[in-house]
Design goal:
It is flat, with a radius of gyration of 18 Å. With 96 residues, the protein is an alpha+beta fold. It folds into 2 domains: 25-56, no CATH class; 58-96, no CATH class. The two termini are 30 Å apart. The mean pLDDT is 86. It has helices at 7-17, 38-56, 71-85; strands at 26-29, 32-35, 63-64, 90-91. The longest helix has 19 residues, at 38-56. It has 3 helices and 4 strands, in the order H-E-E-H-E-H-E. Strand 1 and strand 2 form a beta hairpin.
């Protein structure tokens, strides 16, 4: 903690300690969530995205990126959506 503790620093600390955080990925088996490895969770996410794009085309995919993210993060998100998925459906909400 710094000598001058701003209200923003206090809000961030409060949010970080307000509730338990996930420390491992969860995947859905039927109606239940179960613990999974990172490799399994990423594979399931990739398979799901591929299935949606194959069945409905790339325009069925959309992505929201955070306006508070860095320009580099927003750039990576739009490159992923456009180059990997083939969709222009991306919004970074920069107007807020």
């Amino acid at each position: 903690m710094t000598a001058i503790d701003t209200s923003e620093q206090k809000r961030r600390r409060d949010r970080a300690s307000a509730r338990p955080r996930l420390t491992h990925p969860l995947v859905r088996e039927g109606s239940e969530l179960r613990r999974a490895t990172w490799d399994e969770a990423i594979e399931r996410a990739a398979t799901g995205l591929q299935r949606v794009v194959a069945e409905h085309g790339p325009q069925a995919f959309g992505l929201f990126s955070c306006s508070k993210a860095t320009n580099e993060v927003n750039y990576a998100a739009q490159r992923f959506a456009r180059s990997v998925v083939g969709s222009n459906n991306i919004d970074s909400c920069n107007r807020t």
